[in-house]
């Protein structure tokens, strides 16, 4: 089932209830969520290999309680990522073999609508829960696709700027990860 099909099968009242149950702070923007939901139901889906996955997760030391994470998967394995050699994992580790989870927050809404929903997600969560969690994630950067596109464009601009820097400029303007890590570790000890 694609997200567009799921959204067509649920009512705003059910999605609203799930949204408010899971994200109490959403009440302040509930009319924006309603408009986004209505807008999504009118849009055409764009086919994609990415599929939606919801799962309960907990980041030890960062979170007080578990939360529902929305990610996308397209078959890419962690070992296939460009930065994998820098992660200190062996190529035959469970992490290396695992499918990569991608953030979807900056994806165009039409691509979201064209994503298949992972079967495990469909069997674990109700349609209104899936819709609510996806709506929350889709609107993380704004309630209008143009606002999300602006964020995507700014991120691309920053990436291009970094990639265009010479080694000398990088040394002048960037802080090495090792230095950041030392400073963070120093703060934790205080």
DSSP helix count? 10
* Domain module count: 2
**Shape, principal axes of CA atoms:** globular
Structural class: mainly alpha
Write down how many β-strands occur, each being a DSSP E stretch of 2 or more residues: 3
* Helix-strand string: HHHEEHHEHHHHH
Which residue ranges are poorly predicted, with pLDDT under 50 across at least 5 consecutive positions? none
Give the N-to-C terminal Cα separation: 51 Å
Query: What oligomeric state do the depicted chains represent?
Result: single chain
- Whole-number average pLDDT? 90
Radius of gyration: 19 Å
Helix content class:
40-55%
Could you characterize what this model shows?
The chain is mainly alpha-helical and 190 residues long. The chain folds into 2 domains: 3-143, no CATH class; 144-190. Helix content is 51%, strand content 8%. It is built from 10 helices and 3 strands, in the order αααββααβααααα. The chain has helices at 3-8, 12-22, 30-42, 94-97, 109-113, 119-124, 127-138, 145-164, 167-173, 177-189, and strands at 51-57, 67-73, 116-117. It has a 3-stranded mixed sheet with strand order 2-1-3. Helix 2 (12-22) packs across helix 7. It is globular, with a radius of gyration of 19 Å. The termini are far apart. The mean pLDDT is 90.
């Amino acid at each position: 089932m694609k997200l567009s099909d799921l959204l067509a099968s649920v009512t705003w009242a059910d999605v609203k209830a799930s949204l408010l149950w899971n994200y109490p702070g959403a009440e302040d923007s509930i009319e924006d969520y309603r408009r986004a939901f209505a807008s999504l139901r009118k849009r055409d889906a764009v086919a994609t290999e990415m599929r939606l996955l919801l799962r309960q997760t907990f980041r030890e030391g960062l979170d007080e309680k578990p939360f529902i994470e929305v990610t996308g998967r397209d078959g890419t394995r962690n070992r296939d990522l460009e930065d994998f050699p820098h992660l200190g994992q062996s190529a035959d580790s469970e992490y290396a073999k695992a499918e990569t989870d991608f953030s979807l927050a900056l994806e165009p809404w039409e691509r979201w609508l064209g994503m298949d929903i992972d079967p495990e997600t469909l069997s674990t969560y109700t349609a209104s829960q899936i819709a609510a969690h996806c709506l929350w994630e889709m609107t993380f950067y704004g309630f209008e696709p143009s606002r999300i596109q602006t964020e995507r464009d700014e991120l691309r601009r920053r990436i291009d700027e970094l990639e265009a820097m010479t080694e000398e400029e990088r040394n002048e303007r960037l802080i090495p990860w090792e230095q950041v890590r030392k400073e963070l570790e120093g703060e934790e000890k205080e």
